[in-house]
Structures are given as C-alpha cells and as structure tokens.
Amino acid sequence: xxxxxxxxxxxxxxxxxxxxxxxxxxxxxxxxxxxxxxxxxxxxxxxxxxxxxxxxxxxxxxxxxxxxxxxxxxxxxxxxxxxxxxxxxxxxxxxxxxxxxxxxxxxxxxxxxxxxxxxxxxxxxxxxxxxxxxxxxxxxxxxxxxxxxxxxxxxxxxxxxxxxxxxxxxxxxxxxxxxxxxxxxxxxxxxxxxxxxxxxxxxxxxxxxxxxxxxxxxxxxxxxxxxxxxxxxxxxxxxxxxxxxxxxxxxxxxxxxxxxxxxxxxxxxxxxxxxxxxxxxxxxxxxxxxxxxxxxxxxxxxxxxxxxxxxxxxxxxxxxxxxxxxxxxxxxxxxxxxxxxxxxxxxxxxxxxxxxxxxxxxxxxxxxxxxxxxxxxxxxxxxxxxxxxxxxxxxxxxxxxxxxxxxxxxxxxxxxxxxxxxxxxxxxxxxxxxxxxxxxxxxxxxxxxxxxxxxxxxxxxxxxxx
Length: 466
Known about the structure:
It contains 13 helices and nine strands. The protein has helices spanning 29-32, 63-67, 75-81, 85-92, 113-128, 136-160, 164-189, 197-210, 216-228, 249-256, 267-294, 298-344, 360-365; strands at 26-27, 36-37, 40-45, 48-51, 96-100, 380-384, 395-399, 444-445, 451-452.
C-alpha cells in the first residue's frame, strides 16, 4: 500500500475524482481536517472521503447546509437528510477522492460510540416498524380544519359585524389556524407526508404561501440548517439572535469583551416584550421578504401576494384599511406567542454555543451533557439502570466517578443514585479544528441574527430527516 493520500507513492493530496477500478487513496483525519475552508470542502460518508468544493454550489439543499459538515463524518446526516440513498449515491461517485485509513476512527473528535450504535439501531427499528410512513388522511383532515377555521373567522365578522367581541373571537380563531399551518408546512418541508418529494414541496408552497404569506424556500433554508447543526452559533439561525438576546456562550463572549448594547442582565424581562410578540410580525416578515427579493424567489413572492390579497380583500370591506391592518397585527402577535413557546421550550434550555464537532447522535439528542463543553468532568460513560435501580434497556449518562464536574449547576451521578430525567449524549472536549461560517450563497447570518445576503441563491428544497 502506498503512502497516505496517494496510492503507490509518497503522501500528498490527490486531485480529481478516483477512476473506476483504481485503488483508493487513504487519508487521515489530520489531512481531512484542513479542508474546511470556503471553496475547499471535504467530508466523510461511510468512511469514504469526498471533495465537495465545487459541487457544493449545486447541492439541492444549498452549499451552506452541506458545508456545515465540512471535514466531518457526515454519514448519519447523509442518511437522515435523504430518502432515496441509492439514488443520491450516484451523485457521490464523481466526488470520491479516497477513504479513511483503516486505523482511523469513523468519527473525528468527541463521540459517544455506544450512543451512535444505539441511535442507528433505533432508526432501523423505527423504519422496520414503518413509523416514518405518514397517514395522508390525517394531514388532509388537518388541512381541512385549517381551511374551516379560516372560513369560520370570516363568517363571524360577516354575520356578527366588526365589533370588539366578534373581532377578538375571529382573531383567536385565525391565530390558531396560522399556528396549525406552521405545523403542517413543517412536516411537508421534511417531505414526510407524501411518498414523492415533489408533492410535498408543492403542498408546502401552498400552505406556506397562500395560507401564511411566507416563502417555503426561506423556511427550508433556515430549518434545514437548524436540523443539521442544532443550537450552534452561525450554523443554526434559530439561536443566532445576538445582540438582542444573549444565549449560551455568547453571554460569556460579550462579558469578556465588555459589550453592552442592551441591559442583558434584564433580558429575562424584556424577552416577554420583544421575543414572543414580535418574532413572526417583525423578524420573520422582514427576513422572509428580503430572502424572496434578493434570492429572486418570484414564485414564492406570488404565493405570498395571494395570501395578502385574500386577507385584505376579505376584511377591508368590514374594517377599512386601518382596521384590517390592526386585525392582521393582532393575529400575527397571537400566532407569534404560540410559535415561540412551542418551539423554544426545547431550544433555549439546551446547551448553546460554538461548533464542537460532536457526533450526529449527540448533537441531535441534546448538546448539554454531564462533563460537557466548559465542564471539567470529561466524557460520560453509560450504564443500564432504571430510577429504582433495576435493569432496563434505556441508556442514561453517568459521569466518570473522579474527578467530579466543577461547572455550576452540573450534576454528579453516584453508582446508587437516581439518574436525571432527560437522556443526553456524551460531550467531551472541543478539538482545535478550523470552522468556517461563511459561504458564497444567499444564506449567511450575522451575529445580529439578520441575513447577510450575497448575489447567488440556491433553492433549499432537499428532503430531510423526519
């Protein structure tokens, strides 16, 4: 066998895809780790090394989404984000440049091997039980009751007049309808309702555009990144909210740099005045419109225009333009409260910080772990136990007995004590890897949480994990 990086000769990077029948060059993680730069991206799938530097711009989900996994093992992400793996693998072959050296681990950086194995076994069991096969009838009824609520709200105003009581009742019904639309379009965006992805995308455009006034591409662009790298700054748009709010490690950074744009010691109070009321009314509306205009999503813009035309043509005759605008704002504010409390209950309590390059299962189950980043307890080990001490096939984390974690608020689990109520993956310490946060796509987010647009835009309608 030749040297690492080139078959038959000395070490060195190989240029271009591997020819059919030719021996595969082997690479070590220290070589792969260097290829996580703009215009120079490698990733590993099923122990094979792929150079996606040029092809990333053609990725259906956008270059930013696939670029988040640069210089990482993307095996589980690859399986989660694509429905027909055999079809997608055809596009991988021209990008193949080598494979991991036999002595190299499949994952670079902190990993919980047992959790990864359990996660993959759980996924196989769920697939065998056909738990990912949705019932279209249920979602048809969901759409039906959304449309029924839209009609009911209009009938209340039509029959009872635009008084305060009918208007309040109509606003509540419309807010519930709008909130249910978020749930329906979310599942459609994951291509988890119909067997054909195209049907899911068309249905999502109808729900998101005609029923909500938003862009389906804009939502998928944000949401796919969230699933790829949950709670990671500059990769998950949902947690990049500084300097308005400081979450996780951003509070430490701002404290060290003595940045104080707002009274952050009182953000738990002004959160209720800014976050829940204004998320969909201000942040989403502005970001959504900017995305459609800059990324030239004219179809989505027409869908959104159809929503606003329908809404104001329906209610301006009763309220006039000012009254219809007030009703629209009231519905958006009520809907925003619903959206924030439902979605952020499992976001903000988790660990939020910079990229730690953890394995897929640990990042998805929950980033906060005993002895995790910032703690001195080190990686967690696992044991089989129930709260009453009996054996069970539910894996819970147990930190190594010595030394105990020293972080405030962390926990230590003696051999005879009860485990915590939530299961988390292992953490470990961060590695000194390069991490990029920019990409030449209409896709960036600044530290202020607002889009940093460029001139090139790619639709992000890829299938994702269910």
